[in-house]
Amino acid sequence: MSDVDFYFDFSSPYGYFAAERIDGLAQRCGVRVNWKPYLIGVVFKQTGQTPLVDQPIRGDYFRRDMERCAKLQGTPFKLPAKFPYAATAPSRAFYWINSFDPALAKRFAHDIYRGYFADGLDMSNQETVIASATRHDINADDLRAAMTDPKWKQHLRDVINEAIERGAFGSPFFFYEDEPFFGNDRMDQLEQWIKSRP
């Protein structure tokens, strides 16, 4: 089974839309998806980009586009009051959970995304992240310790550096056999590419 590396930021609406679709793509294409949360704010410092909603003219378009994308794919969505945010806490939590249960980590990721973009929860707050995790019988004290553990801090930094070295610059960003695809709107193209490979 071949792999798709799926880089995303938990504060990215397009990452959220992609997360809602990626399982279907994996099933149709017979690929394994490696979920890799990272922080695009770090990438922005290297590329000179700013969050979409902060950009003149483009910001108004993308606010409209986010609503349209959500409606067309049937995904609950409301732009949160605190947007964007530095998704450090959920990203570290994800990698700790993923280290012992990847399927649970993926369910946790869906909860974080839906909690933020559908329910308006403040996922920059560590305790909100922990509350999302405890719904899956994850021990709150263990997770709280993991999010401040140097091991998981470094792991997140390593993934960010890996993504930058590979050429990722936004969310979602996909690699299939080192072929890059950027954006929720490239997922159909990604699927066609996978199916066209020998």
UniProtKB/TrEMBL annotation:
Domain annotation DSBA-like thioredoxin: ranges: 4-194
Single GO biological process annotation from the record: glutathione metabolic process
Active site positions, chain numbering: 12
EC number, as in UniProt: 5.99.1.4
Keywords, in A-Z order: Isomerase
Annotated GO MF terms: 2-hydroxychromene-2-carboxylate isomerase activity; glutathione peroxidase activity; glutathione transferase activity
Principal EC category: isomerase
UniProt catalytic activity: 2-hydroxychromene-2-carboxylate = (3E)-4-(2-hydroxyphenyl)-2-oxobut-3-enoate
InterPro entries linked: DSBA-like_thioredoxin_dom, GST_Kappa/NadH, HCCAis_GSTk, NahD-like, Thioredoxin-like_sf
Similarity remark: Belongs to the GST superfamily. NadH family.
Record-given protein name: 2-hydroxychromene-2-carboxylate isomerase
Lineage, uppermost ranks: Bacteria, Pseudomonadati, Pseudomonadota, Alphaproteobacteria, Rhodospirillales
